[in-house]
Amino acid sequence: MIPIRKIKIMTDNRKYIRINKSSEVSYKILRKFMKSGTRSSNISIGGICLPTVQRLNPGTFLELEISFVEIESIVKAVGEIIWINEKKQGESPFEIGIKFIDISLSDVELINKMILNFKEN
């Protein structure tokens, strides 16, 4: 695994290109046993945004498995919750922003491939 901060792409005001992509994501708090699942709101090579039913605090570390059914691949990463928003409506009352802190280069390349393919279509 390599730290994500070694790979940079600049665009707009964001540090990384982000796409609104709904993918199945399973996650669990690091060193805990209970696993949860949701669908992503958006993703970049730097992190992912997830709706959740439970309040998870910034600074919490999560083990993530992100499924890309289009290419039959699963990306594994460890991320840190950077922010949380409480939503006024919807089935998931919270939305969390997660920064990838431990992810393999091959998984970063997979995410980048998905972003480029998504932007072309």
What do these coordinates show?
The chain has one domain (4-120): Thrombin, subunit H (Beta Barrel), CATH 2.40.10.220. The chain has one helix and eight strands; from the N terminus they run E-E-E-E-E-E-E-E-H. It has one helix spanning 105-120; strands at 18-19, 24-29, 35-39, 42-44, 47-52, 61-68, 73-86, 94-103. Mean pLDDT is 83; it is low at 1-11. The chain has an eight-stranded antiparallel sheet with strand order 1-4-5-8-7-6-2-3, covered by helices on one side.
Topology:
Blueprint: E1 18-19, E2 24-29, E3 35-39, E4 42-44, E5 47-52, E6 61-68, E7 73-86, E8 94-103, H1 105-120
Antiparallel strand pairs: 1-4, 2-3, 2-6, 4-5, 5-8, 6-7, 7-8
Can you describe this structure in just a few lines?
This protein has 121 residues and is mostly beta strands.
Overall geometry comes to globular
Structural class: mainly beta
Task: State the name of the first-level CATH class.
Answer: Mainly Beta
Low-confidence stretches: 1-11
Oligomer: single chain
The fraction of residues in strands falls at: 35-45%
CATH architectural arrangement? Beta Barrel
- Looking at CATH, the homologous superfamily is predicted glycosyltransferase like domains
Indicate the mean pLDDT: 83
Remind me, CATH topology?
Thrombin, subunit H
For the largest sheet, list the strands in their spatial order: 1-4-5-8-7-6-2-3
* Total beta strand runs: 8
Give the ordered list of helices and strands: EEEEEEEEH
User: Distance between the terminal alpha carbons, to the nearest Å?
Assistant: 30 Å
